[in-house]
Automatic annotation (TrEMBL):
One of its GO terms (cellular component) is plasma membrane. InterPro entries: MetI-like, MetI-like_sf. This is Sugar ABC transporter permease. The keyword Transport applies. It is a multi-pass membrane protein. The keyword Transmembrane applies. The chain crosses the membrane at residues 26-47, 100-118, 130-150, 156-181, 202-225, 269-291. It comes from Inquilinus limosus. It holds the Pfam family BPD_transp_1. Its main location: membrane.
Amino acid sequence: MTDTAVAGAIPRAVRRPARKASASRAGLYAVLVLAALFFAIPLLIVLSTSLKPMDEIREGSIFALPMAPTLEPWSKAWLSACTGLFCDGLHVGFWNSVRILVPSVILSVLAGALNGYALAQWRFRHADKILTALMLGAFIPYQVILYPLVKIFAGMGLYGTLPGIVLIHVIFGLPTLTLIFRNFYAGIPEELVKAARVDGAGFFRIFLQIMLPMSVNILMVALILQVTGIWNDYLLGYIFAGRENLPMTVQLNNIVNTTTGTIEYNVNMAATVLTALPPLLVYFLSGRYFVRGIASGAVKG
């Protein structure tokens, strides 16, 4: 083969993988765009409907953009929409959800981290049995044990109270969080803990001064999981929170399912977006930490 033939053959051999790579990349982008449209179109319809006056909703198409946008449905959903017998809007449920969310997230994440650290780094009797029990608790549907819990909490005087619903969320979040933190701490060398013990550090000092500072990414994973799970919860809040502490999701259901008078679809859509905004903002602001935490061992082990 002459030098000219060799020189001419090299570009053709190089071009083929490049063409295959560009075709596969185009196919990947097409799939991603279709997936984004699949999830974005319902959201755009909800946002568009929430900005339309009722006359425009009755006369126009569901896909039509608002011709005369208005924020009045948002104001009504927040301040004066009827959630049953009371017409105080969603802001009451929002603050109820915040009062439930903050202590529930803090207590459940700290308890899960403490349990995971103990199970991973401190060997004690029956540790494997405790881990097995927690795994069973993570996969048992909580609907199965709702009635016994109602009876237990009623006997303790916690049913229908704010401490009661906080304790419920801590209990149900503990198995999954313990497994997440246990898998993460199991990847930390035992020599680090042993060296701290030699220096005189005890259980809680090692946990607070060594383990927690190393757990920023996995803590963000736990926080995102708990914030989204607790904020979006409907059933537990409806059953255990009590009439004075109903969360935002329960009040949203009351607004949407109101059967008296005219159904205000724009107010319903605005209330839906308002209820979904807090967990969405949490995820968008801390999503990169979620990915880092997953990569650093959240689902490993």
